[in-house]
TrEMBL record:
Residue ranges of every copy of the Pyridoxamine 5'-phosphate oxidase N-terminal domain listed in the record: 28-126
Native source species: Nonomuraea salmonea
Protein name, as recorded: Pyridoxamine 5'-phosphate oxidase family protein
PANTHER family: HEME OXYGENASE HI_0854-RELATED
Domain of life: Bacteria
Keywords, comma-separated and alphabetical: Oxidoreductase
Amino acid sequence: MASWQEFQRQAPELAEAAQRVMDAYKHKVLATLRKDGSPRVSGTEVERKDGELWLGSMGGAVKAHDLRRDPRMAIHVTSVFNDDPAAWEGDVKLAGRAMEITDPDEFAAAGQTEPGSHLFRVDVGEVVWTRVEDDELVIRSWHEGVGEREFRRK
């Protein structure tokens, strides 16, 4: 898995587009895995700081328990769609692993002050940006170990 900074280094244009969509919408959808392996989706906020991607959670939240048990996760950010497909900013999906920060010094250095809350650093395995360009659906992706690719569909 790669840090956000490593992803940016490998795919700078895609990283810039992903950041633009992610920054425009505060709330994202986080997918985690329940104990029985079935999916769970939760609202979340994501922060980029010091070249890393971070997730926080209130103490005792089920999404935090899911991530402690199985760190695999995905985040989806979609932009507002209007009547003009060409004006759509697209959506961003990323997948990876969320590793909990339990060291008190790291926790404090990240600016976490809420007692009992959770902090996770996201290691990125894939990022996908989907949008419409002219009359084509454009899917641009980066996968760790593979690099960047683009698909177009009419």
